[in-house]
Amino acid sequence: MTDTVTDIDASSTTRVVLVDDDPLVRSGLRLILGGGPGLDVVAEAGDGLEALDVVAREQPDVVLMDIRMPRLDGIEATRRLVAGGTSRVIVLTTFDTDDMILEALRAGAAGFLLKDTPPDRLVAAVQAAAAGEPTLSPRVAEQLITAVTRGSAPDGRRVAAARVAGLTDRERDVALAVGRGLSNAEIAAELYMSVPTVKTHVSRILTKLDAANRVQAAIVVHDAGLAG
Q1: Among 69, 132, 168, 194, which residue is least crowded by beta carbons within 10 Å?
Q2: Topology of domain 14-142, CATH
Q3: From CA 48, how far away is CA 20, in angstroms rounded?
Q4: How far apart are CA 120 and CA 117, in angstroms?
Q5: Inter-residue contact 40 to 63 (CB < 8 Å)
Q6: Per DSSP, what are the bridge partners of residue 112?
Q7: What are phi and psi of 15, to 5 degrees?
Q8: Structure pTM?
């Protein structure tokens, strides 16, 4: 899975597939996303196996994926989709245990959001994912910090610290913000930078940290103790 820092065309439509075994949840998500500018829910699936077929047929820009589903769970479905070249999968679930978060992100999810995420942030997360900007809800970002810090082996911490040492001071500031789950726009506002400048820094950070996407970069940041 690769992360890109290029924007999608503002005039284009982002095609979304919803995957959840609860029809009421899918209906609610369809209503929320249907009100978002440039978003089009093109299909739904009730489990992971159906999702594989639907995604292959529809070729969506973003997939919103539940975890607990019959036949094939969302984590394994995400793993298979990412292996097949679908890189913009956002896991959306009521479950936020540390192990589940890490398992989903290691499966290749571009983001992890909780179902109690406010509608406006959910819309923004889908738009960000379509632009190649993975998203973590703030609560999930905090849990990721705790889980990675607690579970990191000494060798892993040393490797991460060595990678982080190659960042410039400004790149470290941006990397820290990425580790907190902030979007490019939020980082730009907080650090008084332009969005294009943030994107340039993020691209360099991914290269220096040997990270395929922002989520992996966040893990390296926390593993190295940069988020403290």
Answers
A1: 194
A2: Rossmann fold (3.40.50)
A3: 8
A4: 8
A5: no
A6: 91, 136
A7: -90, 125
A8: 0.68
> In CATH, what is the architecture of 152-223?
Orthogonal Bundle (1.10)
Angle between helices 154-164 and 214-223 (to 10 degrees): 110
The residue with greater pLDDT, 49 or 147, is: 49
Q: What is the mean pLDDT of residues 153-170?
A: 78
> What percentage of the chain has pLDDT greater than the value 90?
35
Question: How far, in Å, CA of 91 to CA of 97, rounded?
Answer: 13
Lateral strand order in the sheet of 135-136: 39-45, 14-19, 62-65, 89-93, 111-114, 135-136
CA–CA distance from 92 to each of 8, 24, 122, 195 (Å)? 22, 15, 9, 27
**Domain boundaries in the chain?**
14-142, 152-223
